[in-house]
């Protein structure tokens, strides 16, 4: 039972006041305690009891620089000019959207920007009559409550731990009520990409048509994981990485406010290690300021040891030694880096960064005057870039890029890094693929548009013949048994030849250079008959493009027994395989009658006949490969490059079936497969020119 004394006003006044709330997210100190009321003057005779000893208030805990110098308004945001300009104009024109999506890497100001927007939406100004503004005052009750994370209408949720549909359902129920204190209800969802699929779907309708007094601010580092249906309902802002120059100046201002002396080179190292993140850079700066003794300055050497970096001069020494193939100097420089505590993976990463810088110097020489690049790198790097070529730098980049992964997976990181550097130094002495081709061909490269002009078409030297051969191979189309499908016409000199492509590709008539082009045929004019085919291969070429299935059977399913051409027509005897159609002879007869206008007789025979055109092409390809393997220059190349293989032998004189043209030698005998070979070795040139005719096939 409660007594009257328990409910008296005097007893309630004697109760201690509840403590004030602690500091908010921004680390604001608690407000000072109200002054104690003056004690009444006691009577002279009364004895005043001594006041109890109050323990000293503990000092405020240290706030790290990333929290102490967190931006309070849009003026403090650095490196996000486009974002600040857009939001300022939106507040000035009263066009503030109901949902924002802020994305970017860690530490660029996504959550900070969301909090500034929340203050800007609810600020009422120092006099309490202001409206939404891009420059919140910071002194009104709304701003102070948001800064201390005590505002009832600004709710910041971590979507990583509140990612269920139940959490989104609570938000949907809460948005139906008007704000309790502020002008707008603001929901800040950090790492919104962690919401589940059901949670995203539950949020769609509310996000599309929220109440007028509700704003959503989303922040994420994985924008690709956010559904497109969510993105389409938000205004998206991509916060970019802060440039190193801006970070360096920002860190210098903070160091000056903290009363710390930091060398400019140390600030540059911290800005480079921050990789565009302000928070990461401030954490490193905080650690660096705590390194020296009280009153001492932060030196570049101390920051280098803290970050585990190698000296930039040491990295330059490593690159120079590796590019000249000096293995003792490479290993000695790596030992010095290891003694200084540099991480092997970081050393290779620095060398890759230097390789990229040298490649930029080589590609754009004007970058050597860029003041943002340290002078040592501009001077030594520019001189080193003059001695290296783009192919050499590209090869070094590939080796280092692959080596960084090897070091990360190796149990002994130092040994793995040394193996990568030894490989890089060994490759520095080897020529590039372009140099190998020029040395084997014996021809100097012909510059495009140079003093001598381009190499003549069909010439035997340099890039002209090679360019022509590559172009001819690309135009010819497919190949049979690994042979190139380019070559002269199959119908002999003086006549419009036929270009056949195995597999049923279209037939294209090629006219010799000395023959004048034929005028275009009018539609009503009768089409002239095609030239009479002189060989069975030309008969098969007639079917290419017109009758693809017939052409395929003529190449793979037909053995030629006899071919005879007459003035009024011709006679063909064939042996067909079981997979050939029964009316193949009739189809071929009708085709020849239609194309040539002459009468042809096609009959079937049981004689053995010749191999099929496909079998002949495969046999010829094998023969060319064997001849290539025994060629002296090829043997020399195989000895120089162990493990190399010959995959393909290309001959521009072969037809679409990988066979030489059916011509005769000076003795009147047809050319056989044994007559195919390479041109004789010329000590002054090396390989035969790419457009040279094979041995034994010289035209009369």
UniProtKB/TrEMBL annotation:
<dbReference type="InterPro" id="IPR050238">
    <property type="entry name" value="DNA_Rep/Repair_Clamp_Loader"/>
</dbReference>
<dbReference type="InterPro" id="IPR008921">
    <property type="entry name" value="DNA_pol3_clamp-load_cplx_C"/>
</dbReference>
<dbReference type="GO" id="GO:0003677">
    <property type="term" value="F:DNA binding"/>
</dbReference>
<feature type="region of interest" description="Disordered">
    <location>
        <begin position="1"/>
        <end position="42"/>
    </location>
</feature>
<comment type="function">
    <text>DNA polymerase III is a complex, multichain enzyme responsible for most of the replicative synthesis in bacteria. This DNA polymerase also exhibits 3' to 5' exonuclease activity.</text>
</comment>
<dbReference type="InterPro" id="IPR045085">
    <property type="entry name" value="HLD_clamp_pol_III_gamma_tau"/>
</dbReference>
<keyword id="KW-0067">ATP-binding</keyword>
<keyword id="KW-0862">Zinc</keyword>
<feature type="domain" description="AAA+ ATPase">
    <location>
        <begin position="96"/>
        <end position="243"/>
    </location>
</feature>
<dbReference type="InterPro" id="IPR003593">
    <property type="entry name" value="AAA+_ATPase"/>
</dbReference>
<dbReference type="InterPro" id="IPR027417">
    <property type="entry name" value="P-loop_NTPase"/>
</dbReference>
<feature type="compositionally biased region" description="Polar residues">
    <location>
        <begin position="1"/>
        <end position="10"/>
    </location>
</feature>
<protein>
    <recommendedName>
        <fullName>DNA polymerase III subunit gamma/tau</fullName>
        <ecNumber>2.7.7.7</ecNumber>
    </recommendedName>
</protein>
<dbReference type="Pfam" id="PF13177">
    <property type="entry name" value="DNA_pol3_delta2"/>
</dbReference>
<comment type="subunit">
    <text>DNA polymerase III contains a core (composed of alpha, epsilon and theta chains) that associates with a tau subunit. This core dimerizes to form the POLIII' complex. PolIII' associates with the gamma complex (composed of gamma, delta, delta', psi and chi chains) and with the beta chain to form the complete DNA polymerase III complex.</text>
</comment>
<dbReference type="Pfam" id="PF12169">
    <property type="entry name" value="DNA_pol3_gamma3"/>
</dbReference>
<dbReference type="GO" id="GO:0046872">
    <property type="term" value="F:metal ion binding"/>
</dbReference>
<dbReference type="InterPro" id="IPR022754">
    <property type="entry name" value="DNA_pol_III_gamma-3"/>
</dbReference>
<feature type="compositionally biased region" description="Gly residues">
    <location>
        <begin position="449"/>
        <end position="465"/>
    </location>
</feature>
<keyword id="KW-0239">DNA-directed DNA polymerase</keyword>
<keyword id="KW-0808">Transferase</keyword>
<dbReference type="GO" id="GO:0009360">
    <property type="term" value="C:DNA polymerase III complex"/>
</dbReference>
<dbReference type="GO" id="GO:0006261">
    <property type="term" value="P:DNA-templated DNA replication"/>
</dbReference>
<dbReference type="InterPro" id="IPR022107">
    <property type="entry name" value="DNA_pol_III_gamma/tau_C"/>
</dbReference>
<keyword id="KW-0235">DNA replication</keyword>
<keyword id="KW-0548">Nucleotidyltransferase</keyword>
<dbReference type="Pfam" id="PF22608">
    <property type="entry name" value="DNAX_ATPase_lid"/>
</dbReference>
<keyword id="KW-0479">Metal-binding</keyword>
<dbReference type="InterPro" id="IPR012763">
    <property type="entry name" value="DNA_pol_III_sug/sutau_N"/>
</dbReference>
<comment type="similarity">
    <text>Belongs to the DnaX/STICHEL family.</text>
</comment>
<keyword id="KW-0547">Nucleotide-binding</keyword>
<feature type="region of interest" description="Disordered">
    <location>
        <begin position="438"/>
        <end position="465"/>
    </location>
</feature>
<dbReference type="GO" id="GO:0003887">
    <property type="term" value="F:DNA-directed DNA polymerase activity"/>
</dbReference>
<dbReference type="Pfam" id="PF12362">
    <property type="entry name" value="DUF3646"/>
</dbReference>
<dbReference type="GO" id="GO:0005524">
    <property type="term" value="F:ATP binding"/>
</dbReference>
């Amino acid at each position: 039972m409660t007594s009257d004394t328990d409910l008296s006003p005097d007893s309630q006044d004697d109760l201690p006041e509840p403590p004030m709330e602690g500091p908010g997210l921004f680390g604001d100190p608690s407000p000072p305690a109200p002054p104690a009321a003056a004690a009444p003057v006691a009577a002279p005779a009364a004895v005043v009891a001594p006041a109890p000893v109050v323990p000293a208030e503990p000092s405020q805990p240290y706030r790290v620089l990333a929290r102490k110098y967190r931006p309070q308004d849009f003026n403090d945001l650095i490196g996000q000019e486009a974002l600040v300009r857009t939001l300022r104009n939106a507040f000035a024109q009263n066009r503030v959207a109901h949902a924002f999506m802020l994305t970017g890497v860690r530490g660029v100001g996504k959550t900070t920007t969301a909090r500034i927007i929340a203050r800007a939406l609810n600020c009422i100004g120092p006099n309490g009559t202001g409206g939404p503004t891009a420059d919140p005052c910071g002194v009104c009750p709304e701003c102070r409550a948001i800064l201390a994370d005590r505002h009832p209408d600004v709710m910041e949720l971590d979507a990583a731990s509140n990612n269920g549909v139940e959490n989104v359902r609570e938000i949907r129920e809460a948005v139906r009520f008007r704000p309790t204190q502020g002008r707008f209800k603001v929901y800040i969802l950090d790492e919104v990409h962690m919401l589940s699929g059901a949670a995203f779907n539950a949020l769609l309708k509310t996000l599309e048509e929220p109440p007028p007094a509700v704003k959503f601010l989303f922040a994420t580092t994985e924008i690709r994981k956010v559904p497109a249906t969510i993105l389409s309902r938000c205004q998206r802002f991509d916060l970019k990485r802060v440039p190193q120059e801006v970070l360096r100046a920002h860190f210098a201002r903070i160091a000056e406010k903290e009363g710390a002396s930091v060398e400019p080179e140390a600030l540059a190292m911290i800005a480079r290690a921050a990789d565009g993140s302000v928070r990461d850079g401030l954490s490193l700066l905080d650690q660096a300021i705590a390194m020296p003794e009280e009153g001492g300055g932060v030196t570049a050497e101390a920051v280098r040891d803290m970050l585990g970096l190698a000296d930039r001069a040491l990295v330059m020494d490593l690159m120079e030694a590796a590019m000249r193939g000096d293995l003792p100097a490479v290993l000695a420089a790596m030992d010095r880096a290891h003694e200084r505590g540099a991480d092997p993976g970081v050393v290779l990463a620095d060398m890759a960064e230097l390789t990229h810088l040298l490649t930029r110097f080589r590609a754009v020489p004007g970058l050597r005057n860029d003041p943002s690049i340290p002078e040592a790198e501009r001077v030594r790097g520019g001189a080193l870039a003059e001695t290296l070529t783009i192919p050499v730098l590209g090869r070094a980049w590939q080796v280092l890029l692959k080596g960084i992964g090897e070091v990360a997976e190796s149990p002994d990181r130092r040994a793995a890094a040394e193996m990568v550097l030894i490989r890089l130094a060994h490759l520095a002495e080897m020529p590039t693929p372009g140099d190998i081709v020029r040395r084997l061909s014996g021809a100097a490269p012909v510059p495009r548009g140079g003093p001598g002009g381009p190499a003549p078409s069909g010439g035997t030297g340099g890039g002209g013949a090679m360019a022509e051969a590559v172009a001819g191979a690309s135009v010819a189309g497919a190949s049979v048994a690994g042979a190139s499908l380019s070559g002269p016409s199959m119908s002999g000199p003086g006549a419009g030849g036929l270009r056949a492509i195995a597999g049923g590709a279209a037939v294209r008539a090629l006219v010799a250079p000395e023959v004048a082009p034929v005028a275009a045929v009018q539609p009503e004019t009768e089409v002239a008959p095609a030239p009479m085919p002189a060989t069975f291969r030309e008969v098969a070429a007639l079917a290419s493009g017109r009758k693809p299935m017939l052409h395929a059977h003529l190449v793979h399913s037909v053995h030629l027994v006899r071919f005879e051409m007459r003035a009024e027509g011709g006679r063909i005897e064939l042996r067909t395989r079981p997979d050939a159609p029964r009316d193949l002879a009739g189809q071929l007869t009708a085709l020849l009658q239609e194309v040539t206008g002459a009468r042809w007789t096609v009959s079937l025979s049981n004689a053995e006949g010749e191999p099929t055109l496909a079998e002949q092409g495969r046999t010829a390809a094998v023969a060319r490969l064997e001849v290539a393997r025994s060629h002296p220059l090829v043997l020399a190349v195989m000895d120089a490059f162990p493990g190399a293989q010959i995959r393909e032998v290309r001959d521009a004189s072969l037809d679409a079936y990988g066979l030489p043209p059916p011509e005769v030698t000076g003795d009147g005998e047809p050319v056989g497969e044994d007559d195919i070979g390479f041109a004789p070795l010329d000590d002054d040139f090396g390989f035969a020119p790419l457009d040279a005719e094979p041995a034994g096939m010289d035209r009369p």
